[in-house]
Specification:
Elements lengths: L8 H25 L11 H6 L8 H21 L8 H67 L3 E5 L5 E4 L1 H7 L3 H4 L13 H12 L4 E9 L5 E12 L5 E10 L1 H52 L6 H29 L7 E4 H11 L1 H7 L2 E5 L4 E4 L1 H17 L8 E8 L3 E8 L31 H11 L4 E5 L5 E8 L1
Parallel strand pairs: 7-9
Antiparallel strand pairs: 1-2, 1-5, 3-4, 4-5, 6-8, 9-10, 10-12, 11-12
Helix pairs in contact: 1-3, 3-4, 8-9, 12-13
């Protein structure tokens, strides 16, 4: 069934005004037909009172004027037939007074009502806006609570809220799932129920300290699962406080570090095993090289004796063989010495202040003959700062790299060695650059390994240990060493030392 159309506002207003005029007309007709001794004009006050419901502003005044005119017209119509001294004039005056008293009352009432309506409208608007804002805030709060609840329940951390008597009053799904319990099995239980017995003393001491104002941060404990499995955790505790500053409840957050502990334990065990193996290797190298020196000295002594006393008795083949023995034992002695030096790196050494400028200047003096023979130029621009390190080892590091640059210089080209440094946040980076023969990229990864040689002994002598020496010294100081080079274009050896 279709809805009936609402009556237009202007039609409603026309009807209201028509009724007002009709009432006024009826009163006028009554007024001119009743005896003049009756103040019938006062009845016009009904029209004035009726004007309360009329919409136009100041309509009561306009109706009052109309009623006054009608009262005067009625009096004029009846005055011709009235005897002298009648009460008609007094009654008319009373009627007009009544009408305007009503006009005043109705106008004042309408004005007050309009003000009240305005206040009520404003209040209603404010109530509406406030209600709308509250509904929006409530919706946002509900969304926020859902987000918080989702984050709380699905957090990687195991979370729980604990009363001051250590009773669990809330926990998340992560805690329940990790420990193999339902939430109902955890809620209402003591927090100690969740911990391994080995951790209870530590937990109690931590909680006692917390209640005395100390913090609980990253406390290492163990939880126990429903199946009896141990979980290594770190515990952090915060609290929610009442208005008076007392603790309402504590928030426990456990982070599972079981896997991290396993990896750390494996790393420690591996490091200890590796350290033991390295000590064994160093001890073996020391003993082997030390024990080799005596027979080498014997071979060398007898070879030199043969060469000095009986050389003339050998034919050319014998002489060549004798020279070969002397050269081989010499190389062997150098190799044994290098092995001994390698095994002794860092042994019984003490950390002390190392000044790099002093080391470079000392090396230039010690290598002055070599520098003169090879016409080598050494330039340096390094930071004038002393750091803690193993001084003898650092000196050996610079010595090996400088000698390496001189050894692998280009033929008929004077070696130029430039030493520079760059101070970084917690380390110093050094660069020793040369203009030598360079190193091809495919060989750069193996030059710091022991006994690795890129050239034959006929081209360049040496033991193949010098750069391995450098690597071990850098490892001892917790730094890094690497090379940047191209064949025929010189090399740049970089290394870092912690400040």
């Amino acid at each position: 069934m279709a809805d009936q159309k609402a009556t237009p506002l202007y039609v409603k207003n026309a009807i209201l005004f028509s009724i007002a005029f009709l009432i006024a007309a009826i009163i006028y007709i009554i007024d001119i037909n009743v005896p003049s001794s009756i103040a019938i004009g006062a009845i016009y006050s009904l029209v004035i009172l009726y004007s309360w419901i009329l919409p136009t502003k100041n309509i009561s005044i306009y109706i009052g004027i109309l009623c006054t005119i009608l009262i005067i017209l009625g009096m004029s119509k009846k005055s011709a037939s009235l005897p002298q001294g009648s009460l008609e004039g007094f009654n008319t005056f009373i009627a007009i007074i009544v009408v305007w008293v009503c006009v005043t009352l109705v106008s004042a009432a309408k004005s007050g009502y309009a003000g009240l309506e305005k206040v009520l409208s404003l209040l209603e608007k404010k109530v509406f806006e406030r209600t709308k804002a509250l509904l929006k805030s409530q919706k946002e709060l509900e969304i926020s609570e859902r987000i918080y609840s989702s984050l709380y329940e699905n957090s990687n951390e195991m979370l729980a809220s604990i009363k001051n008597n250590n009773e669990v009053i809330r926990c998340n799904e992560t805690l329940a799932n990790k420990l193999g319990y339902s939430k109902d099995e955890i809620l209402g239980r003591s927090i100690e129920f969740l911990h391994h017995e080995n951790s209870l003393a530590n937990l109690r001491n931590s909680l006692k300290g917390y209640n005395e104002g100390k913090s609980i941060k990253n406390a290492e404990l163990q939880l126990k699962t429903n199946s009896g499995k141990d979980i290594d955790v770190i515990l952090n505790v915060s609290s929610s406080k009442n208005n008076n500053g007392t603790i309402a409840f504590k928030r426990f957050s456990w982070t599972d570090i079981t896997e991290l502990k396993r990896i750390e334990n494996e790393r420690i065990a591996y490091a200890e095993k590796l350290e033991a193996k390295n000590k064994e290797l160093e001890q073996f190298a020391f003993i082997a090289s030390h024990d080799l020196q005596e027979p080498l000295r014997t071979v060398t002594s007898f070879s030199e004796l043969l060469s000095n006393e009986y050389r003339t008795q050998f034919d050319e083949t014998g002489k060549d063989s004798l020279n070969f023995i002397l050269e081989a034992t010499g190389r062997m002695q150098n190799l044994v010495k290098a092995l001994l030096d390698y095994s002794r790196i860092g042994k019984d050494a003490e950390m002390q202040q190392v000044n790099f400028i002093e080391i470079i200047e000392d090396l230039k003096k010690d290598l002055s003959l070599k520098i003169t023979e090879t016409n080598t130029l050494i330039e340096y621009d390094v930071v004038d700062v002393a750091v803690m390190g193993y001084k003898d080892e650092v000196r050996q590091l610079f010595l090996n790299l400088i000698l390496n640059a001189i050894k692998f210089g280009k033929k008929e080209v004077s070696p130029i060695i430039k030493i520079s440094s760059l101070k970084k946040q917690n380390e110093i980076q050094f660069c020793i650059a040369d203009n030598g023969i360079g190193i091809s990229k495919e060989h750069q990864h193996k030059i710091f390994k022991i006994f690795k040689r890129l050239h034959s002994r006929n081209e360049y002598d040496g033991t193949g240990i010098g750069l391995a020496h450098c690597q071990k010294i850098i490892d001892l100081h917790g730094g890094k060493i690497w090379v940047e080079s191209s064949l025929g274009k010189g090399s740049k050896f970089f290394f870092t030392l912690k400040t």
